[in-house]
Amino acid sequence: MIDIHTHILPGIDDGAPDWEASLAMARAAVAEGITGLVATPHHANGKYDNPKSIVSELVWELQNRLKVEGVPLTVYSGQEIRVHTDLLEGIETKELLSLAGSAYVLLEMPSSTIPERMSEWVYELNLLGVKAIIAHPERNAEVLQHPDRFQRLVDEGAYGQVTTHSLLGAFGKKIESFSWKMCSDGLVHLVSSDAHNLGVRGFRLAEAYEKINQKLGLEYVQTYRNNAIAVIENGEIQIPHIFDKTDPRKWNFFRKLFANR
Ligand SMILES: [Fe+2]
Fold it and tell me: Which InterPro entries does the record cross-reference, listed alphabetically (predicted)?
């Protein structure tokens, strides 16, 4: 499994505080079957700034330490970029990091609103050949109230990344049920941990996929898993027929039909 959103790098944001914690997180990731992850420290969110040079250096050092310790995990560089006025300039000048050097970037909106320029940014990024993955839209208050506004961003070329903890109920019932609805409505393309530590914000990726298998079926699991691989390999994110919103009920009907056999 590949996890495209983690805070594993030590001491630079609210994720792992030191190397010991980073290595412990890496071991926990491997224990649940994660073979590669993208380190995506917060960037430009008003509290943390983690420029490319710092991220690249720490990723390089973490990878070396993992090699020495014999932990079979590949770490890729990235950033969780809070959308900001200089976003396009940062992308154009390559000051901002994409995920694993691909054409995909991980963007974070404020938790309460969808910024007015969000649509314009998604469009402009597309023109630059850059594809926007929006981190945990299920936790954005405006998306919760107006899912159609997030749908519009998806229609304009954005992708949605839901957090494992949202699907598993750690952020409350409302976000949990909304997350599942976003999955079945085709507004989710990737599932990631957004892991910050080994406690309440751990990985739980294998657990989330297992629950997706139970609730939505194996096709969803395969699609989400393959999409995470597609990100680090700079391939295409797939939106298969199971996400055909013209009539999602028919898939539920077939699923129930087969489940009863
Ligand atoms: Fe994050």
Answer: Caps_polysacc_synth_CpsB/CapC (IPR016667), Pol/histidinol_Pase-like (IPR016195)
State the distance from the centre of ligand 1 to the C-alpha of 163, rounded, in angstroms: 9
Count of domains forming the chain = 1
Degrees, nearest 5: CA angle 33-35-39: 115
* pLDDT tens figures, 89-117: 999 999 999 999 999 999 999 999 999 99
Distance 54 CA to ligand 1 centre (A): 17
pLDDT at 251 over 70: no
Write down the residue that tokens 């154009």 correspond to: 92
List the CATH number of the domain containing 251.
3.20.20.140
| Segment 152-161, tens digit of pLDDT | 999 999 999 9
**Ligand 1 center–CA 92 separation, angstroms:** 23
Residues 171 and 139: beta-carbon distance below 8 Å: yes
For 177, the domain range is 2-259
- Tell how far the Cα of 6 is from the centroid of ligand 1, in angstroms: 6
